[in-house]
Amino acid sequence: MDNGQGIDVLRPRSVLQILGAAVSLYRRYPLLFVVLALVVTAPYELVVLAALGSAPIGGHTSNASTALLLVLVDVALVGPLIAALYAHAVVVIARNERPTFRGVAARVVRVLPVVVAAQIVAGIGIGIGLLAFVIPGVYLLIRWAVVAQAAALEHPDWIGALRRSGELTRGNYAHVFGVVVLTTAVNLGLSAAAGAASGGHTGAGDVIIGIAVGTIIRSFAALTTSLLYFDLLARERPVGWTPAGTDE
To answer: Residue 107: which of 150, 49, 152 has the closest Cα?
Structure first.
């Protein structure tokens, strides 16, 4: 649903204001954001169910290698694709234009390879940092928090996207960390509640609940991170400045 009102995304927001803006946007355009995440989440969760025989939420499997592969697919493709879709959707809404699934998806197709490449490299770096000494991983997680959005909207190569995310987050590490922590806490709470409700069962109802919760979790993370990206832009640039690559 489109109520004909844009949103001022290019202004600094506190951590709680970013989360509040994400909730507000979701309430205004529920169908758009649900569909954007669902078309990516549902096929992935069904593949997980077929490959592992475990529920989308709260399931367990003994097939560690397959589970690891699917996690890598989630990190390298599912997450970046939803992030790119949401970033472009927010741009369309901010311009007071009518956002549609087809229009947003058409924008993302052209930039998806760069988004995926940047996110894969960032994920590998963060993972190595967490396994090595934890703190370097946390630092890289904060530094590269908006790498997918930088790749999707500013259209650099993957190295440029990593560099750009670092430029935007520099000097705002505590602020970015707050957004990451609160978003993660909300998503973990939703996941735990859904897991307790389904008990890891694979009945049709449990699978539907799992897919729905997975969609909400990814939606919330993608939308808050998109708003964080624009918040960081506003802290860096003067009022009225628009990110390169969004004027198409």
So the answer is: 152
Helix and strand numbers, DSSP H then E, in the chain: 10, 0
Scanning 29-78, the segments in alpha helix (DSSP H) are: 30-52, 64-73
The answer on pLDDT for 55 being more than 80 is no
Cβ neighbours of 57 (radius 10 Å): 26
| Region for 156 from its dihedrals, namely left if φ exceeds 0, alpha if ψ lies in -120 to 50, beta otherwise | beta
Check residues 113 and 72 and name the one with the higher pLDDT.
113
Distance CA 203, CA 137 (A): 37
Cβ(222)–Cβ(139) below 8 Å? no
Structure tokens at 108: 């993302």
- In this prediction the pTM is 0.84
Q: Can you read off the two tokens belonging to residue 31?
A: 């169908």
Residue 182 tokens read as: 């609160």
User: Rounded to an integer, what distance in angstroms lies between the CA atom of residue 59 and that of residue 228?
Assistant: 32
The amino acid sitting at 87 is A
* Structure tokens, 147: 């790498």
| Residue 116, token pair as written in the block | 């995926």
The answer to whether 202 and 36 are in contact (CB under 8 A) is no
Q: Dihedral sign, CA of 47, 53, 117, 99?
A: positive
CB atoms within 10 A of CB 150: 30
